[in-house]
Design a protein that fits this description.
Chain lengths: ~270, ~260
């Protein structure tokens, strides 16, 4: 995997405020309801340090994905405030990237064109797009498949293209909404490792929504457990495993201990809902 | 390889069986009823005898069909873009489109003649009416059926309305457009022939295949009538082949309908 010096990495044009380092993310009493519906998130307050890899877990309906959409500025808050490096979500949008549950690739574009689409929509010149495309496809080890169309790729490969597309924006904040949920166990573990390997080269703050405790523990340095109906912050759990993490990490007693602990907490939250 | 061979052999076999049955029936008919189904030989002779009339009529019909078809494509795409704007626009305009589609061609034809005169203009206009409906319905459906996840991705990219239209909605609608195009390509030559029967004219050698069919029928030239039928058929096949080819060019590298099952 090629390592590029950070300063050659193309950056998006400065739209609003520029963040050069990964941002902190703060929730101050964040509340969300859709229309007249029930509360989805109820006075959630949390602080994420710059460069943290945070996982959000919780039972269905706890508002995990909604929280991610609020950070992305895809949906307005009903109450409270979110600060990303001190900015509102809409202001930080230019340096925020989102990875969906589905790969959401355009089937008529090949891998290369899919990856550079966000830059194209921003009017980035072709030469710069090509450089970025080569860099991010290298990061996800898909440089060879640049000319392939999505239907020719496996589920795991499509997800890697989706991640490369998110990285093409040189984001400082990466939001991932259960990106590996539909993949088989083995592929998921490989992609977890690749994601952490990329993180060694690209600095961003990450929010990762998942249903898998093992995945959350392996990836993150902090885990937020939400309770459901309405979504409230239940517990914050630190994961004191050193980076870089390797497949060996999954065999360490410390890892198993944390997974067991987080599972117990999650179980109590789920049981409370049921 | 074996598959390709079968793909050529089977249709050829079908054609051979049809011609064989045709000849058998023709030979089975008595001398005074044979005119009901002229044999292949008689039809081929009619092609020779009538080549001037038939080729002129085919050319006139082709013009009408192509102009109407082309006009239908342009107008339907623009109309679909308009219709895709909102459900309100659709519910206010669909009844009008339905009304146009529900009115039979032989009734529209004299109105058309009244407005633009008999001949090519009328034939093209009536063909347009026939081809327009499947195109506009399918293309509109395509434009409003864009994958919601992809729309959300474009929102996240802060794409403008125009970017969303040209980078997302239009390409996503292409398979639907080509479905409409295939139906319209089948209807256009038929529409042009029926229009020609009802709104055609033989003035300035302007008659098409529909007009020619009426003449042959009145002169009891039944072999020539069959030759006219085959000519119409061939025109339809040609237009369909072109449309299928265009659809393949636009879609084969990404759309699932062109996925090879033996992959």
């Amino acid at each position: 995997m090629a390592v590029f010096p950070l300063d050659t990495a193309p950056r998006p044009s400065p739209l609003l405020g520029r963040m050069s380092a990964p941002p902190t993310v703060e929730f101050h009493g964040v509340t969300k309801r859709f229309g007249d519906g029930p509360l989805v998130l109820d006075r959630v307050s949390l602080t994420v340090a710059a460069g943290d890899f945070v996982s959000i877990i919780g039972p269905s309906g706890c508002g995990k994905s909604t929280a991610l959409r609020l950070i992305a500025g895809l949906s307005p808050l009903s109450g409270g405030r979110i600060a990303i490096g001190g900015q509102a979500p809409e202001e930080a949008a230019a340096e925020t990237a989102f990875v969906f549950q589905e790969p959401t690739l355009l089937p008529w574009l090949n891998v290369a064109h899919n990856v550079e689409l966000p830059l194209r929509l921003r009017g980035t010149p072709a030469a710069q797009r090509a450089a970025t495309r080569a860099r991010v496809l290298d990061l996800v080890r898909l440089g060879e498949r640049a000319a392939a169309h999505p239907r020719q790729l496996s589920g795991g490969q499509k997800m890697r293209v989706s991640i490369a597309r998110a990285l093409s924006l040189a984001p400082r904040l990466l939001l991932l909404d259960e990106p590996f949920g539909a993949l088989d166990e083995m592929t998921r573990e490989h992609l977890n490792e690749e994601l952490l390997a990329i993180r060694e080269q690209e600095r961003w703050t990450a929010f990762f929504v998942t249903h898998s405790v093992a995945e959350a523990v392996f990836l993150s340095n902090r885990i937020f457990v939400l309770s459901a109906n309405p979504g409230r912050l239940h517990t914050e759990i630190a994961v004191p495993l050193p980076y870089p993490r390797t497949p060996e990490t999954r065999h360490s007693p410390r890892y198993h201990e944390i997974v067991a602990n987080v599972s117990r907490v999650l179980r109590s939250v789920v049981d409370a809902v049921a | 390889m074996r598959r390709t061979l079968l793909q050529i052999l089977l249709p050829a076999l079908t054609a051979a069986v049809v011609i064989a049955i045709w000849m058998a029936i023709n030979l089975g008919l008595s001398a005074d009823t044979r005119f009901l189904l002229p044999g292949p030989g008689a039809v081929i002779d009619a092609f020779g005898d009538q080549r001037t009339e038939l080729s002129r009529a085919a050319w006139n019909t082709s013009q009408g069909a192509l102009i109407g078809f082309g006009l239908a494509i342009v107008v339907s795409v623009l109309a679909s873009l308009l219709l895709s704007l909102s459900p309100l626009v659709r519910s206010s305009l669909y009844p009008l489109l339905m009304a146009l589609q529900m009115t039979p061609l032989p009734i529209l034809a004299p109105i058309c003649v009244l407005w633009v005169g008999a001949g090519l203009k009328s034939v093209a206009l009536l063909t347009f009416v026939i081809a327009f409906f499947p195109l506009v319905v399918n293309t509109t459906q395509g434009l409003i059926s864009t994958d919601r996840n992809l729309v959300e991705f474009f929102d996240l990219c802060r794409a403008s309305r125009w970017q969303q239209l040209f980078h997302l909605r239009v390409p996503a609608a292409l398979p639907y457009f080509f479905t409409g195009l295939r139906i319209a390509a089948t209807l256009s030559p038929i529409g042009a022939v029926v229009a020609d029967m009802n709104a055609g004219t033989s003035a300035n050698d302007g008659g098409g295949l529909g007009f020619q069919a009426v003449i042959y029928a009145s002169q009891a030239k039944y072999a020539a009538l069959f030759a006219t039928a085959i000519t119409t058929c061939v025109l339809g096949f040609l237009l369909n082949a072109v449309v299928l080819g265009l659809g393949w060019l636009a879609l084969h590298h990404w759309h699932d309908s062109y996925e090879r099952s033996d992959r």
